């Protein structure tokens, strides 16, 4: 009994100790760098590097105890020494995986998605229908999400007492989105038949962290880069995703994929430049460029890492959604708690009930969007996913041009034509190559 409780006590002590040390460090840093001078606009606390440091200290509250526990479990060989109990099963789930030897699922598992193996088994028509589903799902949910996000962040809320207020904490919105996505996916996998999940949970931390960081860098970058730079970065996202695919999973791409990545980026950039007014910040600072590069790097890592996990472990997309959002909730919750934003956001919610309604709608559209994100990555991979998301940006602008009757310049129209021609070329080449491969496979099996 005592030997069973020993590790539990050690683990609890490790968590408390590291959380205590990190919390003290954070408070020390905040007071040293003059949190009291909040009235000064140019204070250290306003600099993005300071905010980044505070955020990283917050995330360390999760990382440091996790690493210490991992080291302790490994060094003490705790899992080999003890039989199955709740605590050891939890540690096994986090660090080793439930069944590390068995990585592949029974063939009848319908909810499993593997881009490479199952794509060979699907017909072109099934592929087209699935792609259409992903496109419609992603466009529908993220167009709604974009509209609601703009509404929540720019609208002034009023209540029956005549109070007026604006909500400015984007990290709280990210947290609410993640928690709803976690709860919905958790409920779904609890009540449906799911494939075995052999992967240790800690592997989700990488893409969860990069996802949170990409969101943070994106919001921060907006303060430091000019509008044209933002437009260019967003339009060219497919290129860093392909480069990251080479780094993370040694992905090989065909020439037509490189060519269409460049033409889609050029077309999107021309369309965005040709259809929107160049308003807002006009100067791009060095900080802005660093943040933008960090955004593109984290963002492209996230989907490539997720895709690599799908092909290695064959989990369902909802299982991955649940795992990633679990850690995203932890990261954002810790960061919000340290910055004292929970209390102010909840106070805003109680003061302005209309905000609660918008916030709920925003989270629902984000959760539905995430269902499609994970499904698209699992079936078609990160490059197709990012192309759909890039086209979404163009579609949002096109819709606003049509609704508000803004003119689109000739360059903008040419941009649309280039994007759609590239997409058709890509789909055509993809189908040709797959048909060729299928024919070659059939040929070799007939010979055998
Ligand atoms: N791979 C992956 N996994 C999970 N979630 C993801 C992924 N890619 C994008 N997202 C989330 O989608 C939201 C829109 O992201 P972006 O603004 O970068 O996309 S876009 O290219 O501008 O359309 C944004 O949501 P918020 O973080 O809530 O703002 C991203 O975090």
From TrEMBL:
Belongs to the nucleotide-sugar transporter family. SLC35B subfamily. Its main location: membrane. It comes from the Eukaryota. This is Adenosine 3'-phospho 5'-phosphosulfate transporter 1. GO terms for cellular component: endoplasmic reticulum membrane; Golgi membrane. Keywords: Membrane, Transmembrane, Transmembrane helix, Transport. Pfam families: UAA (PF08449). GO terms for molecular function: 3'-phosphoadenosine 5'-phosphosulfate transmembrane transporter activity. The chain crosses the membrane at residues 7-28, 48-70, 128-148, 172-191, 256-276, 282-301, 411-429. InterPro entries: SCL35B1-4/HUT1. The keyword Protease does not apply. It comes from Laodelphax striatellus. It is a multi-pass membrane protein. It is found in: Membrane.
């Amino acid at each position: 009994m005592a030997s069973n409780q020993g590790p539990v006590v050690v683990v609890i002590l490790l968590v408390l100790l590291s959380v205590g040390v990190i919390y003290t460090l954070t408070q020390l840093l905040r007071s040293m760098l003059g949190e009291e001078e909040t009235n000064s606009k140019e204070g250290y606390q306003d600099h993005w590097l300071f905010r980044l440091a505070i955020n990283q200290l917050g995330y360390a509250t999760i990382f440091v105890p996790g690493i210490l526990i991992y080291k302790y479990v490994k060094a003490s060989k705790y899992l080999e020494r003890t039989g199955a109990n709740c605590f050891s099963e939890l540690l096994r789930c986090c660090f080793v995986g439930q069944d590390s030897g068995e990585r592949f699922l029974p063939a009848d598992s319908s909810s499993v998605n593997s881009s490479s193996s199952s794509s060979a088994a699907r017909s072109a028509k099934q592929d087209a229908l699935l792609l259409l589903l992903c496109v419609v799902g992603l466009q529908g949910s993220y167009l709604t999400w974009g509209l609601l996000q703009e509404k929540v962040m720019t609208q002034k809320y009023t209540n029956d007492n005549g109070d007026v207020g604006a909500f400015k904490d984007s990290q709280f919105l990210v947290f609410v989105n993640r928690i709803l996505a976690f709860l919905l996916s958790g409920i779904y996998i609890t009540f449906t038949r799911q494939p075995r999940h052999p992967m240790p949970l800690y592997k989700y931390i990488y893409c969860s962290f990069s996802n949170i960081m990409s969101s943070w860098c994106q919001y921060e970058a907006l303060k430091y880069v000019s509008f044209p730079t933002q437009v260019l970065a967003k339009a060219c996202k497919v290129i860093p995703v392909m480069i990251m695919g080479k780094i993370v999973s040694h992905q090989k791409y065909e020439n037509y994929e490189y060519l269409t990545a460049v033409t889609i980026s050029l077309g999107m950039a021309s369309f965005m430049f040709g259809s929107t007014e160049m308003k807002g910040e006009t100067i791009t600072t060095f900080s802005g460029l660093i943040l933008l590069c960090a955004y593109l790097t984290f963002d492209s890592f996230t989907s490539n890492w997720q895709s690599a996990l799908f092909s290695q472990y064959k989990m369902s997309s909802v299982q991955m959604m649940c795992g990633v959002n679990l850690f995203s909730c932890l990261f954002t919750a810790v960061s919000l708690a340290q910055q004292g934003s929970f209390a102010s956001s909840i106070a805003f919610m109680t003061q302005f009930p209309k905000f609660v309604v918008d916030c709920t709608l925003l989270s629902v559209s984000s959760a539905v969007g995430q269902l499609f994100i994970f499904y698209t990555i699992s079936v078609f991979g990160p490059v197709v996913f990012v192309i759909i998301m890039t086209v979404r940006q163009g579609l949002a602008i096109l819709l606003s041009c049509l609704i508000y009757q803004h003119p689109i310049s000739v360059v903008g129209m040419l941009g649309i034509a280039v994007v759609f021609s590239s997409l058709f070329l890509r789909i055509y080449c993809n189908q040709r190559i797959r048909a060729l491969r299928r024919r070659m496979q059939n040929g070799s099996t007939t010979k055998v």
